[in-house]
Design brief:
By secondary structure, the protein is an alpha/beta fold. It has 5 helices and 9 strands. The protein has one domain: Alpha-Beta Barrel (TIM Barrel). β7, α3 and β8 form a beta-alpha-beta unit. The chain is globular and about 50 Å long.
């Protein structure tokens, strides 16, 4: 059984899949407490569901792209089986994970969005850098940047681990904390090979709205 916070149909707001219709399966629980968290309701709220029931619900939307998110999905070991089963069913599966738990056992067909935590998140100490060794070309690493310190740290981590030679690298701002133009100017000034992104869903809907 899994503890599910919500299942909903929307468009991808982030990653290289941004703008595409997607079914989101948000799992309950998180082992992190980021300073800027926008899904605190997923820490505890949820309902019990079997993997079969989750897949049945996902199929109702007739959409091939599915993202497993949270909270932190990998807190629940059953999430690994859910992703495998979805892949077996022919879905294109994405995993959004906070980067503090091992990704080694995630099905290799899954596109992993690995969110490495910057200093202003207050969770930098939780980053499991060994995960970088298991990244695949289809995966993406995301940095959510709220300050100049965050930017410089992210830039240096990308260089230290040669992340952009392994997979796509995404830089985005902490919504409401850093102006997007500032981050874009820093990226251009340093001419680094990263993809700037905005959280599109926060511009389409109200930033605090759920289920979008």
């Amino acid at each position: 059984m899994l503890k599910i916070n919500e299942i909903y149909f929307s468009v991808q707001g982030e990653s290289t899949k941004a703008g595409l219709p997607c079914v989101f399966v948000r799992l309950t629980y998180c082992n992190l407490r980021c300073s800027y968290c926008d899904t605190e309701y997923a820490f505890y709220e949820g309902f019990d569901s079997s993997i079969d029931s989750v897949i049945e619900e996902v199929k109702k939307y007739k959409c091939n792209l599915v993202e497993i998110t949270g909270g932190e999905p990998l807190v629940q070991n059953e999430s690994l089986e859910l992703m495998k089963r979805l892949c077996d069913e022919g879905f294109e599966v994405m995993l959004e994970t906070g980067g503090s738990l091992p990704i080694e056992n995630v099905d290799k067909r899954v596109m992993i969005i690995l969110d490495l935590k910057c200093p202003s998140s207050k969770m930098k100490k939780k980053n499991l850098y060994e995960n970088i060794n298991f990244l695949k070309p289809i995966d993406e690493v995301k940095f959510v940047i709220g300050t100049r310190e965050d930017y410089e740290w992210s830039r240096d981590i990308v260089a230290k681990y040669d992340i952009n030679k392994k997979c796509e690298v995404l830089f985005s701002v902490v919504f409401g904390e850093l102006e997007p133009v500032a981050l874009v100017e820093w990226i251009l000034a340093d001419n680094i090979n990263v993809r700037f992104q905005l959280q599109a869903h926060k511009f389409i809907w109200k930033p605090e709205e759920r289920g979008v």
